[in-house]
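Incident log, entry 3
Record: DUF2264 domain-containing protein (769 residues)
Problem: checksum mismatch between cached and fresh output.
Input:
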Amino acid sequence: MKQTGKFLLACAMGLCAVSAGAKDSEAVQVRKMIEKVNQHWQVEHSPEVRAFWDNAVYHTGNMEAYFLTGNETYRTYSETWANYNQWKGAKSDNRAEWKYSYGESDEYVLFGDYQICFQTYVDLYNLAPEDRKIRRAREVMEYQMSTSQNDYWWWSDALYMVMPVMTKLYKVTHNTLYLDKLYEYLQYSDSIMFDKDENLYYRDAKYVYPKHATANGKKDFWARGDAWVLAGLAKVLKDMPENYVHHSFFVNKFQHMAQAVAAIQQPEGYWTRSMMDPDFAPGPETSGTALFTYGFLWGINNGYLAEATYQPVVKKAWNYLSKKAFQKDGTVGYVQPIGEKAIPGQVLDVNSTANFGVGAFLLAACEYVRYLEAPQTADRTYWCDLAYRMAAPVLSNMAKEELQKNMQLEVSPTWDGRNKKVAYMETFGRLMAGIAPWLTLSDDDTEEGKMRKELREWALKSYTNAVDPQSPDYLLWRQEGQTLVDGAYVAESFLRAYDQLWMPLDEITKKRYIEEFQQLRRIDPPYTNWLLFSSTIESFLAKVGVKFDEYRVNSAIRKVEEWYTGDGWYSDGPSFAFDYYSSYVFHPMYLETLQAMKDAKVRSRIDYGKYYDRALKRAQKYSLILERFISPEGTFPVFGRSIPYRMATMQPLALMAWYEKLPAGVTSSQVRCALTAVMKRMFATGHNFNEGGFLTIGFTGRQPNVADWYTNNGSLYMTSLAFLPLGLPASHPFWTDAPQEWTSVKAWGEKPFPKDHQWKDEIHTWDLF
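Fresh output:
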């Protein structure tokens, strides 16, 4: 068994390698540059140096290199630095003397140059959560937020140094004050140093035009100063929830600034130190160019910037970074020394290097690797191929109105006699709930993109046929209580891909769905998880803006709260059942009900926002449990009813990965590798599909004896609910970060792993009126 486990682990981890492809050679070259640059720096420099900004910027790049490569030497180097600094920035404990003007001594605790270190401390905390790692960060930032001042960020550098600290700590604490203060502080920064006409920042108020100008009378935008901002905005958007009230403000700022920066790139690929006056301080500069390149690449990789527009900008910039700034021995040259402005006559050459310049180079290089390798990661290819194999027989037939004609139907040996046509609605609704996030991604010319486009086109036709009474594939909306369940999965698919799957439907089809959803009120749901099927449908109707039943939503919420047993688990009704219905229904549909009510801006007695925040923390705890359930061999415990739902057991873990809200101690990389190991263990033989290409009843193959009386092979398409992370772009760290061992692998391999503990509700809420 031990050898089998090692073999399966090797297979799972091997999946994280990059497949062969046209861009491979360049990606490999860039990886070698990262290794050479970082090893050269670490060999030459001790990590036991102060936590001031210049060193801390290097560590932001070093941690990115660790996540991409998995090189434990890099992580150890940053952890040694953090320990040396006692996980602090400036070290004064006397709050009465804390300052935020410029200063390098220990009383400058509130000065952003002594706060950037918290970015790395949070990263290290998320790998192995221990309170001591972020205790000082929270103390300092939460004290700062408690003051009446909003002028902490009086120079542009601070927007890289501290903005990402705020979003990183928000992700750990879920305290929205971090986001609100981030927005407030940035408003002040904008008021003193942002040029609205140019969409660029002056380094600080001293340099605002026309009070200050270059020797040639032009506006003086310092490249590294603006690069701090663009890179900082990318890091903010990485961690800021899309539903945050000011999210669009940050998106617009990032996009407009990127456009402005791209327009003044030099033909050689770099940006001169005075960006709009190349003659004032001519010649290349690396730190600003690298940070801009990181910002552009992150924007492309995450869908905020159009690849067709910005790829040429990146190509020229990387050409400069890799062929002029990068030296054969691993030195990063042409870095302007510490300063705050473009200086005429200042000479930069191959020997002009600095810690922050190396960090900026690493950031750009790592993001470039993600860009290059995105179309070819083997894990994602495997997931996509499996999802397509599962979905194509269903959607290709249903798009042609032939699903009910051609599906090879199977029912439980103990079938309870209900109309077998419920199977088709189960098949369609559950499948679409699982693959909907994948179909939200934009089209491209990759093999995956072609599959995704085909599935989306089939799906939209299938949605139309599903509610057309004249279609042979009109689903069983008006018979059997079971239709409430799978109507909810159809509604859930719309919630998960509202703009891509609901909005494109024609008005007649939308009207039909609304009527079908509303007539499901004829069904009195049993006193179990079924209450959430009603609430999911009604909250979707609320989001659409039509008549909905508030009582069905709120009564379900109240019952779910009564049934919460603690530490991430829900009881399925008044009596606890040891099964996976917390996975199948409770966590996802409860969160989605609450989110839809928030989206609809419904005001009722229930504070949906606070309920959502509490439910999210419970889901995080439960996802942590699921990750620990996955054995080193890629298996998980088989217990409880509905076990033929297979990978649906892992839905909350997949959901937290898709939401980018995994709990500390559980990285996206280890989740990817763990889920891939389970998929391979479960689907490797091919016995999960019957002769018609449809799922067959069983757990790891054809095992009809494990079916419950309500099980048919349409029910089994719930297994697609583990595919939610396909909604993350191919360049996302979930897919591109180096493989990491999941908890059970570490535990059974005699390696350090995070200890577990009980999670208690910390958010309490009462009726609003």
